[in-house]
Amino acid sequence: MHPRDQTIFALSSGRPPSAIAIVRVSGPMAETVVSRLAGRMPVPRMATRALLHGQDQRPIDDAVVLWFPGPASATGEGVAEFHVHGGRAVLAALFNALAAFENVRAAEPGEFTRRAFENGKLDLTEAEGLDDLIHADTERQRRQALRQLKGLLGDRARDWRERIIAASALIEAGIDFSDEGDVPAELIAPALAKVESLRDEIRNVLAAQGQSERLRDGLVVAIAGPPNVGKSTLINQLARRDVAIVSPHAGTTRDVIEVQLDLDGYPVTVIDTAGIRETDDPVEQEGVRRARLRADEADLVLWLADGAGEVGAHDGAAPVWLVRNKIDLDAMRPNEPGEGSVRPEFGISAARGDGLPELIKALVSFAHDYFGTSEGGLIGRARQRKLLQETVESLSRSLDVIELGEELAAEELRRAAMSLGRLLGRVDVEDILDVIFREFCVGK
Ligand SMILES: Nc1nc2c(ncn2[C@@H]2O[C@H](COP(=O)(O)OP(=O)(O)OP(=O)(O)O)[C@@H](O)[C@H]2O)c(=O)[nH]1
Ligand SMILES: [K+]
Ligand SMILES: [Mg+2]
């Protein structure tokens, strides 16, 4: 039997142990599974209490059972939900009982959503939005994901696709008309006008968007600098807890330490690294190597220095802010901009907290620019942006090549429609589906 026709089950709630755990079952066997385990069929969509029994008639748990007959269910198939007590042994007993049925197996990550997608319950942008919503840590990520889940991008893309197909139908009708020679201009002109306005519309969405698909991955800020300048003290201050060891001993931090922060709704990862210096200690050398690597990959580097230190050499393309620490030790006032310095310069005391509000304010404003200011951003992922860009390019090309022949223009329009089809998950997507759904949680 094809894996797709098998019945799947998974824990859909959080990690056990928990007060309640929800196990979902989807597929052709779901109905049989419910009636055997619960001893009867619950009324559809009504919470029903039942003592669950395995096939050996031993009781499993006192549960609440829900039955959603397909196709009006989350996946489009028959779906059962078992709300059981969230103990590990309870779940193990239930999983054993489920797996004992023929053609019933544990679900792969994302398999429920994939079935929903394959049964037309949601388009690919909505499926991606669902995944993002589950993984959203901050308020802005949540709002962005919800827009996707509500299908705002999908709705626009469907409309664009239909209009492209209509324009290309006009051109193709023109081609059919002209047995020999030219296609009548009165057919081509309105089609071209449509294509042009469509292209501008999609361009506007791309432009208005800023970079809000970056919300998924977050902003990476690396704290780097020489040993003992107070890098770990600063990350502890930003995290408001002791994530890194602070000591007067130079070379304390060797591993890369990460904390996730919610800065004004923006997801920011701050990393503390080993102090960068020449050293004979192989462990510290490795720490320094990793520190350089992470600083090179970061989106922003806070180069910490004390006294009169300057920014050290590094290879990354990211902006570097010089942050002078330990201003409590000298007479320098907080946030005195360095003379002739192009990069922002901050004076702080990580130990006492002086200058930190200003530094955090600057970070929020950096995040604001980095993620784009648009609240109405429709694009949630780089994949979506890329396909929209391809659509715009094909539309532009169709306008360019129309002089050379209507067939060429029609071909470009087909390409544009294809890109939007991919965006929605309607064309040749098997390969990307595997990639996308694999990232999902099990039970989703
Ligand atoms: N006076 C003063 N001391 C500080 C300040 N920030 C950190 N220190 C001290 O400087 C020393 C080094 O601090 P760390 O945070 O461990 O420095 P680091 O840059 O992480 O050091 P490595 O991990 O070894 O590279 C500790 O003794 C801290 O207490 C500050 O703002 N003022
Ligand atoms: K130290
Ligand atoms: Mg340190």
From TrEMBL:
Residues engaged in binding GTP: 228-233, 247-253, 272-275
Key word Transmembrane helix present: no
Domain TrmE-type G, first and last residues per copy: 218-368
UniProt entry tagged with the keyword GTP-binding: yes
Subunit (UniProt): Homodimer. Heterotetramer of two MnmE and two MnmG subunits.
Gene name of the record: mnmE
PANTHER family to which the protein is assigned, alphabetical: TRNA MODIFICATION GTPASE GTPBP3, TRNA MODIFICATION GTPASE GTPBP3, MITOCHONDRIAL
Similarity comment: Belongs to the TRAFAC class TrmE-Era-EngA-EngB-Septin-like GTPase superfamily. TrmE GTPase family.
Keywords annotated in UniProt: Cytoplasm, GTP-binding, Hydrolase, Magnesium, Metal-binding, Nucleotide-binding, Potassium, tRNA processing
Location in the cell: Cytoplasm
InterPro entries, per the entry: G_TrmE (IPR031168), GTP-bd (IPR006073), GTP-bd_TrmE_N (IPR018948), GTPase_MnmE (IPR004520), MnmE_dom2 (IPR027368), MnmE_helical (IPR025867), P-loop_NTPase (IPR027417), Small_GTP-bd (IPR005225)
EC number(s) per entry: 3.6.-.-
Protein name (record): tRNA modification GTPase MnmE
HAMAP family: GTPase_MnmE
Binding positions for Mg(2+) per the UniProt entry: S232, T253
Entry note: cofactor: Binds 1 potassium ion per subunit.
List of residues binding (6S)-5-formyl-5,6,7,8-tetrahydrofolate: R24, E81, K121, K444
Principal place of residence: cytoplasm
CDD domains: trmE (cd04164), TrmE_N (cd14858)
Cofactor annotation: K(+)
Job of this protein: Exhibits a very high intrinsic GTPase hydrolysis rate. Involved in the addition of a carboxymethylaminomethyl (cmnm) group at the wobble position (U34) of certain tRNAs, forming tRNA-cmnm(5)s(2)U34.
